[in-house]
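User: I'm preparing a small set of examples for a lab meeting where we compare how different chains pack in three dimensions. I only have the primary sequence for this one, and I'd like the structure in token form so I can line it up with the others. Please keep the answer compact; I'll paste it straight into my notes.
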Amino acid sequence: MGTLANLDLQLLAAASDPSDVTTLALAGVIASAGLRPDEYQAPVAGIGVEEFSWLLESEFPYLDWDVHLDLRAAQKRAAQPGSSIDEFSDLLALLWDHRVEDDTRSLWVACAVSTACMGANHLWQDMGLPSRHLLGELLATHFPSLHALNNQDMKWKKFFYKQLCDRAEIHACRAPSCAVCNDKPVCFGPEEGLPLAAMAPQGLALHA
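Assistant: Understood. Below is the structure token output for the 208-residue chain.
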């Protein structure tokens, strides 16, 4: 399927609207599969093979059929998340509870965001987006009430995990408030960096 950048370009070239932020995000998460931990190298974790095929047909209707089949095979052979040691299902539930539409596309985005959260970089990078601003636009479109809760502009992964802790009534932070916490720059500092495609080693093949 080629390198991260090449697959991303193939997907966007096959899209009905390559400028649409949802399409951009889905393409980025699919293309970045090989950079995630082994158990999250499905193109989009949390959905079945037939649902993933429908995603490809809907978002990237002009995709080369051989690439479609390769991605479908990658989705089929990847282990689906089911471990209790990570937060995938909790993240998915958090996002789904804040959906603005009860539709298939919102489910795909919720699964894609949860999948990307398992990566090692800033969330906008792990979603293959060119900027953090577009991540905010994506979340505001599909999960506006959750987006609105991040009114102090906390880093998105930190914010999601804080929401999960609050839901579980786990007080992981020792400081009484963010304002007096010594780790505040870690949670609220700038999310600078290059897009993931620019960071990936040249020639890295995505085997997803």
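A couple of notes for your slides: DSSP finds twelve helices and no strands in the chain. The chain has one domain: 4-199.

User: Perfect, thanks.
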